[in-house]
């Protein structure tokens, strides 16, 4: 379990979002944190793919491979 302390203005923004969406503060924080973690994971995958680019295929090669 984690305990997190927010600055008052961030805490108020969380409360505001929770009230508008009918969710709890914790649900809003959990959802935001999960979205952030997913973004970091996606960025890492993208960086790895750029560092080691895959082979590129021409349109002719794709058509030939797929018998089109």
Low-confidence stretches: none
Rg (CA only)? 22 Å
What percent of residues adopt helix (DSSP H or I)?
over 70%
Distance between the termini: 55 Å
Order of helices and strands, N to C?
A: HHH
Number of extended strands: 0
Q: Helix/strand-derived class? A: mainly alpha
Fold blueprint:
Elements: H1 8-21, H2 25-51, H3 59-65
Helix pairs in contact: 1-2
What does this entry show, briefly?
By secondary structure, this protein is mainly alpha-helical.
Describe what this molecule looks like in 3D.
The chain is an all-alpha fold. The chain has helices at 8-21, 25-51, 59-65. The protein has one domain (8-65). It is built from three helices and no strands.
